[in-house]
Amino acid sequence: MIQIDDSGSGSLIGGTGIGILNTDTNEYYFDIIPLKYYQTELYQKKLYQDYVIEIVKKGFSKLNVTKKDTIQVCQSYVFDKLRHWLTDNEYNWSNAKIEGPLQYKVEESFTHYVINLGLPRDFVKHARFAFGFHRLLKWVFADKEKRKNLCKTQWKSWQKWGNKERSIYKNILTYPDYCLKCGKKIKPPQKVITIEYTTIKPATINLHPQCYSGELREFPPEFLREFSTIIKLRNLPENNEPQLFLKVLNNEVVVTSVQGEILGILDKPLSYKIAFWLNKGFVWQCYLKELSENQAKLNLKLIN
Ligand SMILES: [Zn+2]
User: Fold for domain 225-302?
Assistant: First the structure.
């Protein structure tokens, strides 16, 4: 039997892989729908579906597939035009859910292909959901000018998130991480370039300073520009004053009243982030909401 399956049609990086297997002889054919089908007006015309037919013609010729062979085609939309072509050419085919050796082979081939494009082996080999959009976007954003050329840029999701503005600044890393440019470890404490942006949630990339060559954009990341947080109250504010102030004190950020009385402290991770930007001269408007006996909700908004 002949089976046809795809891999990578959902991967932001790279084209799409098409694999054909003769399950009797184990002969295998693999080819890629090139990236240009996902980066130009060819995409709107769905011409990748025509290219699939070209791949399958070559594969059939290599594997000596005849009209007597039984053919199973994966249900992916990638094969919509192929199905018509198979019918028009009187092949003996049906739709099927492809599992087993071909699925494994075609995924392996696609993984090999994206590693050749530059994705770190560890990044795709030992991860669940290795080809998740936001995961790959992170890798792209570590070297956007070069890596956007490897993306399916006609995708709606790229158009939605691909130009997301990023905060890019010099930082000292306090936890171990991997540099998504060179793929090597970063051991804390170490000087890094940090890139932060928000898509469905905030994301952080850390790079060796020598691994980043673009411009800096030293501005607090989106998730710090307007947000709420809960603080434990040490003192109740007098007069129920709504506007409070933030001050860096011993590397922590304290919330004070107009008179300078300390009312509470922001929690550690947040303190660390806000102190960094307060020390660079950024200022947050800070309002008290929902005051209870020992805690309060604060609304914070960056004003410069
Ligand atoms: Zn690096």
Answer: Alpha-Beta Plaits (3.30.70)
Confidence label for 237 from pLDDT (cuts 50, 70 and 90) = confident
As a CATH number, domain 167-211 is: 3.30.60
- Class at the top of the CATH hierarchy for domain 2-117: alpha beta
Ligand 1 midpoint to CA 204 (Å): 15
| Chain segment 164-192, per-residue pLDDT in tens | 999 999 999 989 999 999 989 999 999 99
Whole-number mean pLDDT of the chain? Answer: 93
Whole-number pLDDT of residue 257: 86
pLDDT for the residue 279:
94
Positive or negative: CA dihedral 222, 225, 228, 230: positive
Distance from residue 217's CA to the centre of ligand 1 (Å): 19
Q: What is the rounded average pLDDT of the residues 257-269?
A: 89
Name the residue ranges covered by the structural domains of the chain. 2-117, 167-211, 225-302
Summarize the confidence of residues 146-170 as an average pLDDT. 96
> How many angstroms is it from 172 CA to the middle of ligand 1?
14
Q: Is the pTM of this model over 0.90?
A: no
**What spatial distance separates the first Cα and last Cα of the chain, rounded to whole Å?**
66
- Name residues with Cβ closer than 5 Å to ligand 1, which is an ion: 179, 181-182, 208, 211
